[in-house]
Amino acid sequence: MFFNRKPVELLEIDSVLRDEIPVIRRFTGGGTVIVDQGTIFVTFICNKDAVPGLQSYPRPIMSWSSLVYQKVFQGIGDFSLRENDYVLGNHKFGGNAQSIIKNRWVHHTSFLWDYEISNMGYLKLPKRSPDYRQARGHLEFICCMKDYIPRLNFIDRTIDAVGSHFLVRSMELKAIKHPSGTEFQPSSRFLSKQELEEAEFDSLTGIALSHSLPL
Fold first, then answer.
1. Which GO terms describe its molecular function (predicted)?
2. DSSP at 191
3. Which of 10, 29, 41, 112 is least enclosed, having the fewest CB within 10 Å?
């Protein structure tokens, strides 16, 4: 979930606490997503001048990334960028999030190659949603990529598409070294059980107070 949003607005906290679902407050913007073994992540971490002529603002970055994925989905389904989502036809399959600072930007996507239907019960319907959603519930709004493209095929196509913009080299994560003298301090973190319980309590207290106010 986005760091600047309240858990009670986004999550069915009773169910999350009951089933001990980990909740991560991430540093990038965007919506709330369920992550499991069927999720594929693709992230661009770029210096400001990495893409010639690209302005470091949300809409230009989204437009550029959609051109990359147009190559990936060429001949597969009806791919498009609708508002801030990647869709096939009228159904969302990729949610995007960004973080932009002075000399660098991050754009990452959570792709729903597959998902567990029951997991969608942990999410509330967002108060703000794109117009094309048309108040559809989660299961009517999203689709699975596996119905359109094999997982490894998608990964290979993505690497090829990225290779048209950058020099691509495969590396093991453990081989990536931080510059000497630096220490990585992640700003994304897990929310504690206490934080979730307090968020739920504050919500229930607010409801009780609203019902007790005189007309």
1. ligase activity
2. P
3. 41
**CB atoms near residue 31 (< 10 Å):** 20
Spell out the per-residue pLDDT of the chain, length 215, in tens.
887 778 888 899 999 999 999 999 988 888 888 999 999 999 999 999 999 999 999 999 999 999 999 999 999 989 999 999 999 999 999 999 999 999 999 999 999 999 999 999 999 988 888 899 998 998 999 999 999 999 999 999 999 999 999 999 988 887 877 766 667 677 888 999 999 999 887 767 654 444 444 44
Total-model pTM: 0.84
Q: Tell whether 16 is covered by a domain.
A: no
β-pair partners for 79:
88
Distance from C-alpha of 184 to C-alpha of 197, rounded to nearest angstrom: 29
Q: Residue 151 falls within a domain, yes or no?
A: yes
Range of the domain at 118: 28-176
Length of the chain: 215
Residue 157 forms part of a structural domain: yes
- Asked if the structure places residue 207 within a domain, the reply is no
In our burial notation (b when 16+ CB lie closer than 10 A, e otherwise), range 79-112 reads: bebeebbbbbeebbbbbbbbbbeeeebbbbbbbb
CB distance 8 to 200 below 8 Å: yes
Count the domains in the chain: 1
What would the two tokens of residue 74 be? 């060429």
